[in-house]
Design a protein that fits this description.
alpha+beta
Length: about 120
């Protein structure tokens, strides 16, 4: 019914490698929930989930946090939240993880934008 998507940068502390992925949250509401309430609840759920002070550091923590929020009293209109995680292709990751090529961020971003515009 509602959907939010964001890009997440992941860093493996063991291998010192990073990658980017898109995370998509799909929100399902109880019948009869009005559109403005759906927008508000989706946005508030997202804000609580990605709170910088307590953002989960791994997949398990992220999913557990989603489940806890869904079960809390704060979102009585939410019935279900789906999560899709899609790793970005290596050429798309350059703008988010520029250390792959050890080049200045500005150049990597510019080249990524040009490549996208040409496609």
């Amino acid at each position: 019914e509602m959907q939010l998507e964001f890009t997440c940068l992941m860093h493996n502390s063991r291998t010192e490698e990073g990658h980017a992925e898109n995370r998509r949250l799909k929100f399902w509401f109880v019948k009869g929930t009005d559109h403005s309430r759906k927008l508000t609840d989706s946005y508030e759920f997202f804000k609580d989930l990605v709170n910088q002070g307590s953002f989960p550091k791994d997949y398990v923590g992220f999913i557990k946090r989603m489940l806890k929020q869904l079960q809390s009293e704060s979102y009585p209109n939410l019935r279900r939240v789906d999560l899709d995680i899609v790793p970005l292709e290596p050429c798309s990751q350059e703008a988010f993880v520029p250390e792959i090529e050890q080049r200045p961020v500005e150049i990597v971003v510019r080249e990524g934008l040009l490549r996208t515009l040409e496609d």
